[in-house]
């Protein structure tokens, strides 16, 4: 994305050129910038994908009544190319960037805050199906079951791993081998909304507290333990402690089958992380991996695979 596009958007929306522009290298499907104009900060999101921008606009408006710490829309235009929208700026750093400097008590507080916001989101109506939806009317991304969502996720990882040729596709087979075990569990999942990507990213931390939840291009409907599993996998890849997710898990009060599903979901996200290696997305360079990182992901997989294998073998 070149600076001319950003300058033209600022002229169109503010009748002024930006005093400063900083690219935020977050997300993989859009270009995000912090812009400063006349001593005020805003966040500009640009994408060639109309449904992404429309999704952000839809959900930010839909969630306004819930008193959540989310951005406010300043201006939006999904009828041009590229599409964009401008939102209010929320101070803070991604949880992953702030994590090392947080005390255990602060991690506990943040886990409680996020859990409260997840509960607030759950007060919205259930959807007519499952998945990552840009609106309640989004038929293109709607799945008939939660199992369909999980299988689709595994299938995406399989395609990427096969294309990138960094990891063996046998990891996919091994994850799929557990699907029959969770059939009954998946059938019991309701299509309830949750913040699926509010993990070590998209959760902003300011002075040790949760200051915002961002990047709401869609809302996921299904099992909110999915977000807990993704956050666990993210912390593992940071070589960080798991105190935060342990506090979060305590609040969720998972039963035995949910504990088992959580281990399975971590495996699903492990192959997802494997699959991202070698991809470019919206980055200037592809996501590289060295031998040490490759071995680390493989070891994480084997650890959780062994745990789940022992659980399912004992039934």
From TrEMBL:
InterPro entries, per the entry: AGP_Transferase (IPR051678), Aminoglycoside_PTrfase (IPR002575), Kinase-like_dom_sf (IPR011009)
Residues in Aminoglycoside phosphotransferase domain copies: 21-248
Pfam families listed in its UniProt record: APH
Name used for this protein in its record: Phosphotransferase
Source organism per UniProt: Teretinema zuelzerae
């Amino acid at each position: 994305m070149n600076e001319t596009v950003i300058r033209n958007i600022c002229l169109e929306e503010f009748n002024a050129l930006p005093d400063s522009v900083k690219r935020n290298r977050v997300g993989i499907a859009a270009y995000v910038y912090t812009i400063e104009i006349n001593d005020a900060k805003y966040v500009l999101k640009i994408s060639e994908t109309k449904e992404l921008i429309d999704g952000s606009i839809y959900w930010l408006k839909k969630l306004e009544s819930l008193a959540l710490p989310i951005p406010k829309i300043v201006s939006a235009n999904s009828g041009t190319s590229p599409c964009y929208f401008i939102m209010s700026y929320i101070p803070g750093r991604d949880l992953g960037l702030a994590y090392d400097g947080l005390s255990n008590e602060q991690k506990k507080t943040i886990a409680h805050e996020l859990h409260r916001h997840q509960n607030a989101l759950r007060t919205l109506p259930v959807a007519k199906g499952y998945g990552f939806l840009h609106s309640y009317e989004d038929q293109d991304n709607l799945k008939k079951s939660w199992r369909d969502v999980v299988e689709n996720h595994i299938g995406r990882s399989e395609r990427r791993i096969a294309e990138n040729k960094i990891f063996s596709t046998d990891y996919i087979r091994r994850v799929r081998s557990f699907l029959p075990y969770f059939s009954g569990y998946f059938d019991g999942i309701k299509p309830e909304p949750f913040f699926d990507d509010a993990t070590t990213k998209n959760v902003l931390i300011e002075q040790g507290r949760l200051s915002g939840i961002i990047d709401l291009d869609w809302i996921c409907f299904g099992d909110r333990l999915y977000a807990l599993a993704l956050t666990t996998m993210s912390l593992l890849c940071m070589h960080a402690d798991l105190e935060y997710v342990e506090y979060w898990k305590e609040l969720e009060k998972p039963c035995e089958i949910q504990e088992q599903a959580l281990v399975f979901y971590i495996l699903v996200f492990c192959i997802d992380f494997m699959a991202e290696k070698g991809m470019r997305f919206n980055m200037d360079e592809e996501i590289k991996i060295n031998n040490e990182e490759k071995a680390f992901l493989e070891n994480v997989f084997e650890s959780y695979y062994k745990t789940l294998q022992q659980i399912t073998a004992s039934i």
